[in-house]
Amino acid sequence: CLANVGIYPTDTRDEQRRQRFLPWTPEQHYQADLTRSFLMDPIEHWVGKSVLGPAIFHENLISMHHLGPEQIRLIDGLLYGVAAGLWNRTAVTVDKALRSPESKAV
Known about the structure:
By secondary structure, this protein is mostly helical. The chain has helices at residues 26-30, 43-46, 69-87, 91-98, 101-105, and strands at 21-22, 63-64.
């Protein structure tokens, strides 16, 4: 038990009550497709609010659960492939990865 080493459960949401840990599929969170008995946040928090869709995801999202291999590869590609090129942080790395084997030998 983590309590034995001084680690206790705590609310990790931000001031806007956005979750940093998504215990269900991203689609269920995105569509607010969770039954009342499984909601960590009261349904009243989301109903009638403009915080739906992508706004529910914290920009410092830590983990997502219930993802299949295809979803994990898609997210990885979007974050570290497409977005890396857009942010131009690793443009050289992305460029090298996209070169054909023939052009790498030259």
